[in-house]
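Hi,

I'm pasting everything inline rather than attaching a file, because the server keeps stripping attachments. The sequence lines come first, and each chain or strand is labelled.
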Amino acid sequence: MALRVTALAGGVGGAKLVDGLAAVLPPGNLTVVVNTGDDFDHLGLRICPDLDTVLYTLGGIANPTTGWGRDHESWNFMASVKAMQGADWFQLGDKDVALHVLRTQALRQGMTLSQFVQRVSHSLGIRVPVLPMTDDPVPTVVETEEGDLPFQTYFVARRCEPKVKGFRFEGASHARPAPGVLDSLTRADLVLFCPSNPWVSLDPILAIPGIRQAIASRTVVGVSPIVGGRAIKGPAAKMFRELGLKAEAIAVAEHFKGLVDGFVIDRQDQAQAEDIQKMGIQTLVTGTVMHDGAARASLAEDVLNLAGTLLEMETTP
Amino acid sequence: MALRVTALAGGVGGAKLVDGLAAVLPPGNLTVVVNTGDDFDHLGLRICPDLDTVLYTLGGIANPTTGWGRDHESWNFMASVKAMQGADWFQLGDKDVALHVLRTQALRQGMTLSQFVQRVSHSLGIRVPVLPMTDDPVPTVVETEEGDLPFQTYFVARRCEPKVKGFRFEGASHARPAPGVLDSLTRADLVLFCPSNPWVSLDPILAIPGIRQAIASRTVVGVSPIVGGRAIKGPAAKMFRELGLKAEAIAVAEHFKGLVDGFVIDRQDQAQAEDIQKMGIQTLVTGTVMHDGAARASLAEDVLNLAGTLLEMETTP
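And the predicted assembly:
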């Protein structure tokens, strides 16, 4: 019987693996819980980058080159904003902006983020339940040597240049998991930490009260977002180094020690497998770079196999 | 010496004549006061159709075919809204939506509509002061045989089909003219009623307290929006008929009797000139259909000549 999986995901890497899981799991066996710490208001619009990347990817309308944003996108909105001297440091495509406008309107009318995501998922024909980690605002603040920066200011406006000292998820302690999140985690055979940034994609999810507790008794598998000492996408490796850690798969495993039962690393990092294994974490070495749909599905299968082994070990006396 | 002109304008016809005036008058001699009765909230965005048509036209970025909207426009935003089952009855181009997003943000941040229009005018290199009639909301309600309809519902969603019984400008009695409006009218040598819809473009402006009084002592010239029994654009002719009036240039002159000193009609309506003249309104017959920039400037010159004659008559004992 197919496993019930709840995946915790950030943006591009998370979206790709979730897409692979959706391809190999029966509908109804997969739920995605998405980081909303990156969400922010820009040009008066509410923007949820990770949620949108997951929705676009599962809806089959993501930009295949960038992994985020819409396919066949045009940029006349942005050019027009710029011509009118509006803020143009955050790129919004013409198709993409429609989602932000509809969301901003819905939230202002009193709809929750969860409800809006559900409505859009339905419109886009997405059958996998996509859940924001919370409907409450929990903005990630990046503590840098230049002071505290809102996440998108650090990430986009400042291109991750300021040296990182730490992270804060504002309001997390009072936030409630979005409807369905705890329920789906509690019922999951496997909780998957997607290959997303540990610091700013997965930690915000884990900071929501109740989520750590809900996964404590679950079988948890993580996939390293760091391959060959580099992040496939984004600043994860740079963050590890700036925090005085090695930017290696094993550092990610170390970060999640006590939470993950299994860990998937890339063949390039095979040499680290033994040390991760010594931490009491069942380690699988495979190809983790998802160049295409087949690679997404293949990694999903590998993850499920590792989870199957772990679950079998649990039930074997 | 060139006249100081303040033009009262609605959308396309008004914008074209104002553009003609801008071409023949020295900078500083022209001010435009624009109808905001058509303004409405749509998809959570504040949309001001007449103001935008005037801004795009004076900025040289209007769609030359439609007369409204942006040139070289694309429609990916709208397609994306539709795909997500958002409201798609009001067309918003990708470039156009940038203006609505920026305006919505500015208004929410406490900027007035006037201030926003000034900022955008500056960005677009528009040297003619463009003033909304008021910064207060004064939505036009169309009283029809099917009941009261918000203007854009009547105009766009219902394609002007419901039979008109009357019009209401909600909140007009408490609205204040936008900063600069009364001042510009009081200082004008000529107040021009552009060839805009009398019922839903010019009457809303005249409904703002203080505006009628300010123009009472001014030389006022109107240009008929009805040519050969038809409106060049929009439902003006249909409205006249449904209100039991003839859809003719003379009916427009009759509508503004007591306000206008001079009136400009098209050659097609030459037969009505004598009767308009008998109403005590100095009438000029010329080509009023503005097919191109030259026609805009030419009509502007005709209007200024008529105004010159009227002003001379006033000062001649």
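Chain B has 13 helices and 14 strands.

If the labels don't parse on your end, tell me and I'll reformat.
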